[in-house]
Amino acid sequence: MVIYVPVPPGHSAYSSMQQLRAQAAAREWTVFASITDQAALDDPLTECPGWRSVRRLVSSGTAGGIIVPRGSGVGRRIPGLHDWLRQRKASLAHLPVTQARPSRKSAL
């Protein structure tokens, strides 16, 4: 499996990556790579360098599927993704992640 987390520019994928790694380990999935891209929420991901790496790993058979955060929109941001995965007998797992909340500073 390969973990793929697209995030908006200026945001960190660290928390989502950690959560997805833990969930993959709990399912006893072997993760070959963890990859991220920075892209605006409605941008297509097909030309992003991280997605090209994910595509190579799946195409080569190194990874048998892709793990993404639920709600990331990966399925709609990569046209034809489900057919492409089906042709390669690969899977797509949308797993839940919780977003870190910004800390609230108390007024003095």
Average pLDDT over all residues: 91
Q: Which stretches of 5+ consecutive residues score pLDDT under 50?
A: none
Number of helices: 4
**Whole-number radius of gyration?**
15 Å
CATH class: Alpha Beta
Q: What summary fits the major beta sheet?
A: 4 strands, parallel
Question: What's the total count of β strands?
Answer: 4
Distance between the termini: 49 Å
Name the CATH superfamily assignment: Resolvase, N-terminal catalytic domain
Order of helices and strands: EHEHEHHE
The helical percent reads: 25-40%
Quick overview of this protein structure:
The protein is an alpha/beta fold.
Structure description:
The protein is built from 4 helices and 4 strands. The chain has 108 residues and is of the alpha/beta class. The chain has a single domain, classed as Resolvase, N-terminal catalytic domain (Rossmann fold, 3-Layer(aba) Sandwich). It has a 4-stranded parallel sheet with strand order 2-1-3-4, with helices on both faces. Strand 1 (2-7), helix 1 (14-26) and strand 2 (33-38) form a beta-alpha-beta unit. The mean pLDDT is 91.
